[in-house]
Amino acid sequence: MAIILGLESSCDETAAAIVRSDRTILAHALAGQEDHHRAFGGVVPEIAARAHAELMTPLVQAALADAGMTLDDIDAIAATAGPGLIGGVMVGLVTAKALAMATDKPLIAVNHLEGHALSPRLVDADLAFPYLLLLVSGGHCQLLRVNGVGDYNRLATTIDDAVGEAFDKTAKILGLGFPGGPAVERAAANGEAGAVPLPRPLKGADEPHFSFAGLKSAVLRAHETGQYRVEDIAASFQQAVVDCLLDRLRYSVDRMESLPALVVAGGVAANGAIRTMLADFATARGMRFVAPPLWLCTDNGAMIAWAGAERFAAGLIDGLDFVARPRWPL
Ligand code: KG4
Ligand code: ZN
Q: Does the keyword Cytoplasm apply (predicted)?
C-alpha cells in the first residue's frame, strides 16, 4: 500500500494532505486565504502566491504531525502542477520537487482538474470507470467521460465564464461578499426563484456547450433597476444556472451511450440546488449519482494526494524538470 503526500496551491486554498492507497485519509491540513482577498472582492494572484509561500511548509509539517509520520513514511510526493494561478502553482510544485529531491522519493505532477475528477473515487470504492463527470468550479465548467486515470473525453465546456465565476460575479454585483458561491446560495434560500426574469443561455441549442456570461450581465441589469430584492435575484440566478446545467446535461446524455454513474466534482458541486437537480436527473436516467462530501468538493490537498495515489499505482511518475502549467486541459 502506498502513502502519498499531496500539495494544492493553484487558487486561494493552501493545502497538504496524506492519503493511503486503500482510501484512508491520514491527514488533511488546509488554510483558506479569504481574509487576504476579501477587500479586493476576488483572488489577487500575487497576494495568493505570497500566502501560499508562507503557508505551505507549515501545512506540510502539520499534516505529517497529524498523521504521526515523518517524510520517511511517505512513498511519493504529489502536487498540483496546473492549471491555475501560476505563482501559486509554482509554490506547491517547487515545494514538492524540493521534498522529492531531499528524500529521493518520486514526484507526481497532478493536473488540478484530474484531482477534482478522481476525488469521488477517494470516498466511493464502488465508483468504477467509466463515468460521466460534471466538473463545475471557479475556473471550469466541463462535461467529461472519465475512462480511466489520465484518460478523459471532454464532451462539453463553457464558451465564456465558468459556472463558479458566474456565482462569484453575481455575488459581487449583489454585494454579497467573497467567496461568492456560498454567499449566493445562502441569499437564495430566502428568495423567490421565479421573481426575476433571467435568460437561460444556450438552452435548447443544438450543441453541447455551456454559457454563463449573458446570465451574469442580466443579473447586473436586473440589480440596476432597483426593482428586485437581492435574495430574489440570487434565487432566480441560481435557478437559471440549474436550468442551464440540466438542459446541457440532457443534450449530451441523450446523444451518448449510457454510463452507470453521474458524478459531480469541483467547488460548485457544494451547491445544494445543483446537487438535488443532478441527483434527480441521474435517478430518472437510471444512473447512480455520486457527489463527494462538501469539504472534498472545494479545493483541498486530499484530492491531489488521491490523484497522486491513482497515478502512482498506474506507474505514472514525473521528472524534477516538470514545468508548472498555467493552462492544462485534461
Ligand atoms: O474547485 P474550487 O474550490 O476552485 C477552483 O478550482 O476553481 O471552486 C471554487 C468555486 C468558486 O467559484 C466558488 O464560488 C464556488 O466554487 N462555490 C460555490 C459554492 N461553494 C463554492 N458555488 C455555488 N454554490 C456553493 N455552495
Ligand atoms: Zn478546483
A: yes
Proportion of the chain above pLDDT 90, given as a percent: 93
66, 37 Cβ separation under 8 angstroms? no
pLDDT band at 41 (very low <50, low <70, confident <90, very high): confident
In which region does residue 113 sit, left (phi positive, over 0), alpha (psi from -120 to 50) or beta (all else)?
alpha
Is ipTM over 0.95? Answer: yes
Domain 129-294 in the same topology as domain 3-117+296-313: yes
Spatial distance between the Cα atoms of 170 and 220, rounded to a whole number of angstroms: 8
Q: pLDDT for 254-280, tens place per residue?
A: 999 999 999 999 999 999 999 999 999
**Please, which residues have CB less than 5 A from ligand 2, an ion?**
137, 299
Q: What are phi and psi of 255, to 5 degrees?
A: -110, 15
To test ligand 1's pocket by mutation, which of 158, 167, 274 has the most ligand atoms within 8 angstroms of CB?
A: 167
Residue ranges per structural domain of the chain: 3-117+296-313, 129-294
CATH superfamily ID and name for 3-117+296-313: ATPase, nucleotide binding domain (3.30.420.40)
What atom of ligand 1 comes closest to residue 139's alpha carbon? 7
The CATH number given to 129-294 is 3.30.420.40
pTM for the whole structure: 0.94
Cα–Cα separations (whole angstroms), residue 162 to 159, 169, 242, 245: 9, 11, 14, 12
Centre of ligand 2 from the C-alpha of residue 299, in Å: 5
The binding-site residues of ligand 1, defined as CB within 6 angstroms of any ligand atom, are 11, 137-139, 164, 167-168, 179-182, 185, 266-268, 270-271, 298-299
Atom of ligand 1 nearest to the CA of 168: 14
Residue-wise pLDDT for 48-104, tens only, equals 899 999 999 999 999 999 999 999 999 999 999 999 999 999 999 999 999 999 999
